[in-house]
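STRUCTURE:
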């Protein structure tokens, strides 16, 4: 498999109401509610959505590759899943966790 299904969580590590869920669809979850990001007009805005959750996971893989350029997709996926904070089974391996790297 070369694609991860990413779900969104809120500040309480609960599934966002707008996200996909279920073990057949979701590999990993990441925060996706009330995130602060850059916004047109040289300002910032709060955002909600799985697109932002996915960006956090993608950025995490980039950090892993920076630490270990020879890292394979399988090893990166395994690292993301084994270090995730366990949540409800419907959110795959759990919430993205960079602290245990």
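SEQUENCE:
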């Amino acid at each position: 498999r070369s694609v991860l299904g990413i779900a969104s969580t809120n500040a309480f590590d609960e599934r966002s109401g707008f996200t996909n869920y279920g073990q057949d669809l979701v590999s990993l979850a990441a925060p996706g509610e009330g995130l602060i990001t850059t916004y047109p007009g040289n300002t910032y805005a709060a955002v909600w959505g799985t697109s932002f959750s996915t960006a956090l996971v993608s950025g995490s893989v980039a950090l892993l590759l920076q630490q270990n350029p020879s890292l394979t997709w399988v090893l990166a996926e395994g690292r993301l899943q084994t270090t995730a904070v366990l949540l409800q089974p419907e959110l795959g391996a759990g919430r993205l966790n960079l602290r245990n790297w």
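REMARK: The beta strands are 6-9, 28-31, 35-39, 43-47.
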